[in-house]
């Protein structure tokens, strides 16, 4: 083709085949006789042009998989032409997405699910209280009512303390009161009830002066007329740690009957009624049955049990059940089963209690305690045998 184009472009040569012309030498050529044409020598070999950028294969493009052959008789659906100037769908999918972006997109649903679960859990944990702002703390829920007894009238300590009080450290508290120890003050019992504030001040002066205690040891005091007085500071409703029963001041309350109630001394009914009402209310705050037994841990080896011993004692016990003493006296000790039953009735408990039993306790061992249990006095002793706990 290149030789023909050059032949046609020679001067003096007719561009139309079969037309006579004259060559450069002036010699006429015979028309129609190709044998007379002088063959043109072959030109230099042409090199193929290098492929341009548009002809080079794109390394990022992958070859298309072979298509499915058309079935005979099935018309082939023509592909829709792409819009000029806009990338096609295939070209969009052929673009490579960075690996980190693929990982992020793949984990996005899981991340959203975790966030949703966290928000749901936060919603369940939070408590909405009508009338409170979000910044205000949510009040604690009140404990279940259980077997509660009415609070008896309690005379505040300011009535008997007067100006004789001294500076003392702040009170210490427990989480709750699970047992009550009953005491007697071992003071004269023929007093006038109007003189009781003065009697309590005298007890307070002896314990904070001679004994150098920080406050009176009893949490409450009851006189022969049935009047209940607040003793140790800290609040009658609170579980104030007292100083009434060595080794067992934790999670307990001490009630002192003003007077001496040894064997043969009458115990006024007004006093036992007040003690039962006070014990029913105080133990009812923790839903403790006054007729049952509770587990306590000794904190002092000078008690009936060595330090660290876990023992079972009556919920409404006498001082002698935890410490080597005759307190609260034989007469008041004998009234304890009756006081327990009365306190249980005030709590609304109607189920009969277990029968009262006396379980002998061998020296050196801590015996079990049951409702109505009192430590026996061994022959030849004026007080129960000292116990050191279970080896």
Helix amount, in percent? 10-25%
Alpha plus pi helix count:
8
The major sheet is characterized as: 6 strands, mixed
Q: Distance N terminus to C terminus?
A: 123 Å
Short description:
With 391 residues, this protein is of the alpha/beta class. It is built from eight helices and eight strands; from the N terminus they run αααβαβαβββαβββαα.
How would you describe this structure to a colleague?
- The chain is α/β, with parallel strands linked by helices.
- Helix content is about 25%, strand content about 10%.
- A six-stranded mixed sheet has the order 1-4-3-5-2-8. It has a two-stranded antiparallel ribbon with strand order 6-7.
- Helix 6 (about 270-285) crosses helix 8 (about 335-345).
- The protein is elongated, with a radius of gyration of 54 Å.
What does the secondary structure layout of this molecule look like, with pairings?
Blueprint: H1 2-8, H2 89-94, H3 99-125, E1 154-155, H4 157-161, E2 179-184, H5 196-210, E3 220-222, E4 228-230, E5 252-257, H6 269-284, E6 293-297, E7 310-314, E8 316-318, H7 330-334, H8 336-346
Parallel strand pairs: 1-4, 2-5, 2-8, 3-5
Antiparallel strand pairs: 3-4, 6-7
Helix pairs in contact: 6-8
Features:
391 residues, alpha/beta, 6-stranded mixed sheet, two-stranded antiparallel ribbon, 8 helices, disordered C terminus
């Amino acid at each position: 083709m290149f030789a023909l184009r050059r032949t046609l472009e020679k001067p003096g040569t007719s561009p139309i085949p079969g037309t006579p012309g004259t060559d450069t030498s002036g010699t006429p050529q015979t028309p129609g006789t190709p044998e007379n044409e002088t063959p043109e020598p072959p030109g230099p070999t042409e090199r193929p042009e290098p492929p341009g950028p548009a002809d080079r294969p794109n390394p990022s493009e992958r070859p298309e998989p072979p298509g499915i052959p058309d079935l005979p008789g099935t018309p082939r659906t023509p592909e829709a032409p792409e819009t000029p100037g806009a990338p096609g769908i295939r070209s969009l999918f052929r673009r490579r997405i960075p690996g980190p972006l693929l990982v992020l997109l793949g984990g996005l649903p899981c991340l959203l699910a975790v966030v949703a679960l966290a928000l749901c859990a936060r919603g369940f944990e939070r408590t909405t209280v009508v009338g409170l702002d979000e910044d205000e703390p949510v009040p604690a829920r009140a404990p279940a009512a259980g077997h509660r007894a009415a609070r008896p009238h309690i005379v505040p300590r300011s009535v008997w303390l007067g100006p004789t009080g001294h500076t003392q450290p702040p009170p210490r508290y427990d989480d709750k009161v699970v047992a009550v120890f009953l005491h007697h003050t071992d003071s004269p019992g023929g007093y006038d009830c109007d003189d009781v504030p003065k009697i309590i001040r005298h007890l307070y002066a002896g314990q904070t002066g001679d004994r150098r205690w920080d406050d009176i040891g009893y949490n409450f005091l009851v006189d022969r007329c049935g009047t209940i007085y607040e003793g140790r500071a800290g609040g009658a409703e609170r579980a104030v740690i007292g100083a009434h029963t060595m080794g067992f001041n934790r999670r307990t309350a001490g009630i002192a009957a003003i007077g001496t109630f040894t064997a043969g001394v009458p115990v006024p009914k007004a006093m036992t009624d007040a003690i039962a009402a006070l014990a029913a209310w105080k133990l009812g705050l923790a839903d403790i049955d006054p007729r049952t037994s509770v587990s306590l841990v000794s904190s002092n080896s000078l008690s009936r049990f060595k330090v660290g011993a876990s023992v079972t004692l009556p919920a409404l016990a006498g001082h002698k059940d935890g410490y080597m003493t005759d307190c609260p006296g034989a007469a008041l000790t004998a009234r304890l089963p009756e006081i327990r039953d009365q306190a249980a009735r005030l709590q609304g408990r109607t189920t009969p209690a277990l029968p009262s039993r006396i379980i002998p306790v061998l020296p050196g061992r801590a015996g079990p305690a049951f409702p109505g249990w009192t430590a026996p006095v061994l022959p030849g002793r004026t007080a129960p045998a000292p116990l050191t706990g279970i080896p």
